[in-house]
């Protein structure tokens, strides 16, 4: 027992020496290295870069500044929803930065190809957008994204940042909408999102519930949904439950909770940037395996709310704030 206590103390001591203490730091920061660390290796430096990522290229330090904001979104083939969500959010980012070039790119190459084939509209992939910005002489790029959680899509964004940062004088990468959880003096993005999301909730009686449909992911970031449920419970908004299409919790995880609380009526709403295939078909479709049909078979009356997060003004503002952080990091000395 004593040996275990000593071992634990040593581990905690080493952790403190390596990472230092994280206090009320800027939103773009996270852990800061303790001053006692003498050999800051590239791997250690990268591991402790939490929040907005920044890279300055010493080989281009004398290049003139020509700036742009690149907004990354998964995209959607649902044209009407795209206009109300992605386009409207990108327009809000442009309004916040009227003198800067703002470019949007879709990370889903399949969606890019389908939009081109069906609409004749060319939307670049992130790789194409970055290559074009480089060819057009832009030297400083602030990369923002319309991701909800830091899952696989955000990992793609980080990979792009690392792959292209040597091509520019300075590159920054903003965080997804949900990133910080109020830990160690940081802001609580999840609590802020709960307040934004609740602006679209109907008035709930004791036998009413809202089911918020997330996408779900095999990525460890799926755990954000559990944190979100915690913040929803803490906000005391009534019977509000998170479930996912492709992750955990599932719909069948939530149904017993609804029955235990005596819920009779359920409002279904997507927690996705757009109201695309998942919202219109998986959630609210007429097929026997849609979430609406499954809930009706279980005895609930169901009202679908088919609107993407991008239609919510308070949520759009959160995305604008994340883009602002990427831009501010680009401007910072």
Structure write-up:
With 333 residues, the protein is of the alpha/beta class. It folds into three domains: 48 residues, no CATH class; 145 residues, 3-Layer(aba) Sandwich (Rossmann fold); 106 residues, Rossmann fold (3-Layer(aba) Sandwich), CATH 3.40.50. Helix content is 42%, strand content 15%. The protein is built from 13 helices and nine strands. Strands 1-5-4-2-3 form a five-stranded mixed β-sheet, with helices on both faces. Strand 4, helix 7 and strand 5 form a beta-alpha-beta unit. Helix 4 crosses helix 13 and helix 8 crosses helix 9. It starts with a helix and ends with a helix. The relative contact order is 0.14.
Our Rg estimate from Cα atoms comes to 22 Å
Shape: globular
By DSSP (H or I, 4+ residues per run), the number of helices equals: 13
Which whole number gives the mean pLDDT? Answer: 91
Helix vs. strand class: alpha/beta
List low-pLDDT spans. 1-29
User: The CATH topology of the largest domain, please?
Assistant: Rossmann fold
Domain count, please report it.
3
- CATH class of the largest domain equals Alpha Beta
User: What portion of the residues fall into strands of 2 or more residues?
Assistant: 5-15%
- Largest beta sheet, briefly? 5 strands, mixed
What is the number of E strands?
9
CATH architecture identity of the largest domain: 3-Layer(aba) Sandwich
Helix share of residues?
40-55%
Distance between the termini: 50 Å
Q: What is the element string, with H for helices and E for strands? A: HHEEHHEHHEHEHEHEHEHHEH
Strand order of the largest sheet: 1-5-4-2-3
């Amino acid at each position: 027992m004593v040996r275990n206590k000593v071992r634990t103390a040593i581990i905690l001591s080493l952790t403190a020496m390596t990472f230092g203490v994280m206090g009320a730091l800027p939103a773009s920061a996270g852990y800061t290295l303790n001053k006692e660390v003498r050999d800051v290796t590239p791997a250690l430096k990268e591991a402790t870069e939490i929040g907005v990522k920044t890279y300055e290229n010493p080989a281009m330090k004398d290049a003139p500044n020509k700036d742009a904001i690149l907004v990354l979104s998964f995209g959607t083939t649902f044209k009407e929803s795209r206009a109300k969500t992605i386009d409207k959010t990108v327009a809000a980012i442009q309004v916040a930065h009227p003198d800067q070039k703002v470019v949007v790119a879709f990370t889903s190459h399949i969606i890019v190809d389908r939009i081109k084939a069906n609409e004749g509209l060319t939307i670049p992939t992130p790789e194409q957008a970055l290559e074009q910005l480089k060819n057009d002489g832009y030297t400083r790029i602030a990369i923002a994204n319309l991701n909800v959680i830091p899952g696989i899509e955000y990992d793609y964004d980080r990979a792009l940042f690392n792959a292209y940062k040597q091509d520019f004088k300075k590159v920054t990468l903003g965080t997804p909408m949900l990133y910080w959880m109020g830990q160690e003096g940081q802001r609580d993005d999840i609590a802020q999102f709960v307040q934004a999301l609740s602006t679209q909730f109907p008035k709930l009686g004791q036998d009413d519930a809202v089911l918020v449909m997330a996408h779900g992911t095999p990525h460890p970031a799926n755990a954000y949904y559990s944190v979100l449920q915690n913040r929803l419970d803490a906000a005391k908004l009534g019977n509000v439950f998170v479930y996912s299409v492709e992750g955990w919790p599932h719909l069948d995880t939530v149904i017993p909770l609804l029955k235990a609380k005596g819920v009779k009526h359920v409002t279904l709403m997507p927690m996705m940037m757009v109201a695309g295939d998942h919202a219109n078909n998986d959630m609210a479709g007429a097929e026997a395996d849609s979430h609406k049909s499954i809930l009706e078979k279980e005895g609930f009356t169901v009202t679908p709310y088919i609107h993407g997060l991008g239609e919510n003004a308070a949520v759009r503002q959160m995305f604008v704030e994340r883009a602002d952080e990427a831009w501010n990091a680009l401007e910072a000395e």
